[in-house]
Amino acid sequence: MEDWTEENLETVEKLASHDLCDRCLGRMFGKLGTGMTNDVRGRMIRAALSERGKDVPAPDVCALCENVFDLMDRFAQAVAEKVNDVRSDNFLVGSRVEPEIADKEKELWEMHGLENAEAIKTELNREIGKLALPLINRQVEFKNPQVVACVDTRFADVTLDIAPIFVAGRYYKYSREIPQTIWPCRVCKGKGCGRCKDTGKMYQTSVQEIIGDIALEMSGGEEHFLHGMGREDIDACMLGEGRPFVLEISRPRIRDIDLDDLEKRANGSDLAGFARLHFVERAAVQAYKNADPDKTYKARVKAESKVNKERVNEVALSFKNVHIDQRTPRRVEHRRADLVRKREVRWVEAEMIGDDVFDLTVNAEAGTYIKEFVSGDEGRTVPNFSDALGIRCVVQILDVIAINYQEPTRD
Fold this sequence. Notes:
- By secondary structure, this protein is α+β, with helices and mostly antiparallel strands.
- It is built from 13 helices and 14 strands.
- The strands form two sheets. Strands 5, 6, 7, 8, 9, 10, 11, 12, 13 and 14 form a ten-stranded mixed sheet that branches.
- The relative contact order is 0.09.
């Protein structure tokens, strides 16, 4: 310590003259050396100065931190009360300080060319966390904390930033009258009006709400969001092995909800079903959104006039790895950009049901508009099934029967 103070005597003396408490003085050199707290380092600096005839006692009130560190026990108690009110595996402490304190601290660094100083927020976070740890009895997590207790030192107030929980699985949609996610009313934009009977929604429920409302109740969370791997039309069913999705619950007070119970309760609806529920990390949301697996559809098609079975089969087989151009369909052009999208139809199979009715099973690239592939959408999709058959056709019923996606293996 003597060699260190000899080299920095002038800077140390100037800093001590700014009426800094031991912690703030020691923190100016907080990144030098290990194994001691800043208040101990500050006292050692004063002792070294005193030995050289420079007696600079600690002030009653620190000109920098304004004695905020005297309140650490109070802060730690408040943190423990907040964190113990939620269930989590870990936590982390953060803090807010007076802007004037942060500005003063930065001025001191620049004035004295300090390169090894530690920020006051860093010390507060660490020291409050050390005091709170035995009161909370959970481990501290720095990279991905489930709960962050932020101490506002100005008002001795603590707010919790609770990380969402994410539940992945597959859903089935059996109803042709509900959307995948909550759909705000087009008239009132969610505020509530006569058209939506003051619900703020176009549809009374959705796949999202069927499972999300139950998950919200079980977790004590605030909001739910459903991130699907694509979406089907409202009047289409999602069958087969279901559509992959991630349900996000914000600010859950209980994280370890029983997913078997959630699945059982959500499956009490005859509108939708759920399977393979499991917890995932936040990164799964983007992974699902970025995935673009091929999909297989079954469409009940009605022709404008009688059709020949052999001819229908011949046209179906002709769409083998065929590239099509699809301009934004008329039915969605009010909410989608007017673009021409290039898609590929992998294969088509046909089965006659009546003289002018048949089923098409279509496997196509993600994002293909199947109704428009069949009808042609007034020439906006080319080539299309109707033009190839020579008879106008429309899809009466559409189901998604397979999404060709393999979830990563879970440990």
